[in-house]
Amino acid sequence: MDPNLNRAPRLQTFYHQYLDDECSALFVRSVSQHYTTATLERLALYGSRINRRAAVLALGFIASYTSNAVMGQALHDNDRGVRMLAENGIREIWCRDGSDLQQQQIAVIERLNGARDFLRAEQLATALIEEAPWYAEAWNQRAIALYYLERYDDSANDCHQALEINPYHFGAAVGMAHCYLELTDAFAALDCFRRALRLNPDLEGVRSQVQYLEKSLEGQQ
Q1: What is the percent of the chain where pLDDT is above 70?
Q2: Which has the closest alpha carbon to 157: 137, 170, 135, 142?
Q3: Ordered domains of the chain (ranges, CATH)
Q4: Global model pTM greater than 0.85
């Protein structure tokens, strides 16, 4: 190990140790003993490059939904490493709203969507939305189920609602764009893809979609 590392701030030490051993439990325990979420948020936005990476990684592991805005801002960091960690971490944070039981429910709905049991996912997501209409990820997960059930209008509406609640939800913006493509509304799809890119500039697949649609619609706007 680099002997200079011992003179680095603790967070950097924990981060480099994590890169060496990939032990997330040790990283989380070490960070939690020495840093508050508020301090990690400040470091994520204003720290050195390595401290920003370490702080964003830590927030992705331990932060609640209240850190959503900080992680959303980190998606625009000038360091690609920070941006990549922020994209992974913010997806985790989206599922940490509400009570422990509600978070368990969203995990079940995610698994159902992953298993392509879209009807059951839609049913459970609807029940969660009725209980917690402010839970953006519940709307997003129901939108995913509805999309694959070919209910594109309903899916687009749920994506819109997810974005109304969580304006950093680039996934919902992408989902809404795909709904509009299925509804043959290329202009609306382009607007949604552009919105997703504004939220997360590293979505290269979305960037390609924007370029393709712009070229296809050239002269029609």
Answers
A1: 95
A2: 142
A3: 3-93 (no CATH), 100-216 (1.25.40.10)
A4: yes
